[in-house]
């Protein structure tokens, strides 16, 4: 059993990019490497939490730590199911994963053959996992990420309210050193009252520690 500011707390972290199948060999995904989510899982563990890492497609292997429960998923729907399964006894949930907003309406069972000069893929909306959790929220502390390319503050605050989050971590992924694939990030964290943490370019490990410290203070505060 570990000690630390998150001892006794259950933390669920999602990481990576979801994979939405077109056919058995093709898919729609995004540039998430998984690094931000992995850093959060490691930091939560170091702070004493019991951690579940739900990882979609990632560039690197997830942390090898017997104390971090690893769940591999593929699509947004799989991630939705894995997260909701663990929701009831979760204390802090952090959605660092980049989840597809749309998936192909049909996923072909065998490889699609080349035919006409053009091809149209019809996409349908996926379930917004965070928004669904925000509606079910009870004791859970819910942290979302906002990956933006401009107007990060505006969009992040909108997501915080719309998805009923406790904190949102905004990163402008168009800025060098921030967002997808890098070992560093530049983030601003907001709660319902406004800016609560503004970090310059630092490692994703440092971002993870600072965000979890904020969560730990607030979750402990709520218990008093
Ligand atoms: O993995 P790395 O390479 O380290 O990159 C890190 C990162 C850029 C992926 C990460 O820092 C980040 O910003 N993650 C969120 C990416 C994202 O999907 O942002 P969004 O603004 O589209 O979504 C907002 C929030 O809603 C996110 O917490 C997302 O997980 C969640 N969401 C989105 C769509 C959906 N269907 N369900 C969701 O829960």
Automatic annotation (TrEMBL):
Annotated spans, Phosphopantothenate--cysteine ligase: 11-224
Enzyme Commission number: 4.1.1.36, 6.3.2.5
Residues that hold CTP according to the record: 101, 111, 145, 159, 163
Domain DNA/pantothenate metabolism flavoprotein C-terminal span(s) in chain numbering: 6-216
UniProt remark on cofactor binding: Binds 1 FMN per subunit.
Pathway where this protein functions: Cofactor biosynthesis; coenzyme A biosynthesis; CoA from (R)-pantothenate: step 3/5; Cofactor biosynthesis; coenzyme A biosynthesis; CoA from (R)-pantothenate: step 2/5
Family: In the N-terminal section; belongs to the HFCD (homo-oligomeric flavin containing Cys decarboxylase) superfamily. In the C-terminal section; belongs to the PPC synthetase family.
Protein name (record): Coenzyme A biosynthesis bifunctional protein CoaBC
Gene name linked to the record: coaBC
Included stretch of the parent chain: 187 to 410 of 410
